[in-house]
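[Q] Does anyone have a clean structure-token version of this?
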Amino acid sequence: MRSELPLAPREGYLPVDGADLYYRDVGRGLPVIALHGGPDFSHAYLLPEMDRLADACRLITYDQRGRGRSATGVRPEDVSIESEMDDLDAVRAHVGVDRVGLLGHSWGALLAMEYAIRHPGRVSHLILMNPAPASQADRQLFREALLQHAPEDMARMEALVPDAEAAYERGDPAAVAAFYRVYFRHGLYDPEKHLDRLVAKLGLDTRDAILRTRAIEDRLVSQTWKSPAYDLLPEVARLPIPALVLHGAHDFVPLVCSRHIAEAIPNGRLVVLADCGHFAFLERPEDVHREIVALMSGM
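[A] Here you go.
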């Protein structure tokens, strides 16, 4: 019997207030919107690995406002947590359903939680893959873990790029790529296998794009983690939504941060993946696929 050919992705632009959001839609079945991390990246680093889910659901990815292909005409001051929520709801409405699954990676998991808190009736499943910390206190734990490597990392940066710190501040693409090579080495279980490919997928093309997305990141962080009162955990404790929290055993985000999220959500389940860092879809794609399909099928 001839197997069915994979579906070709459907692409387009969704006009929203002040921006045109690039989206990509592949697969059939339960719609799941994937939210990329950063928050200064685009959806591109999730592909092609996340397309594995197209055999189990309809997967919609999009570039968040001001990033990737959704950058035209967008100023950093046009982006806020509220605009992110409005844009995500516009994507959901465009899909044409009342309820969607949300799959957030890293910072995208924080956006998924923010949306589910505001619109619990519009979310069928919550998949938080290598989630960013959900509170200011847990973000501080993350920062403290990173600071342990800071002197060694700065030395590596200077070895890769002359005058590395100043070049990074200017948004020099080579310096930013060098920074990510150093930074994400800690976020991968097997950097020798995955680091070059990961950095190449981050789209560090031009100084203007780097500075714009960096300014967007600064705005979003100032509205979340920089507030001492920022804490989503009491809010997600009221969510009546099946939730999966995927954490890599070698993630540079401390395990306790993911555990806090999974324990707060009434129907939350934490899965810790061995031999895996902060990019589970890259290092453990089969396990990610299995766990997500199990969640969606109610197993």
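[Q] Thanks! Anything notable?
[A] The radius of gyration is 18 Å.
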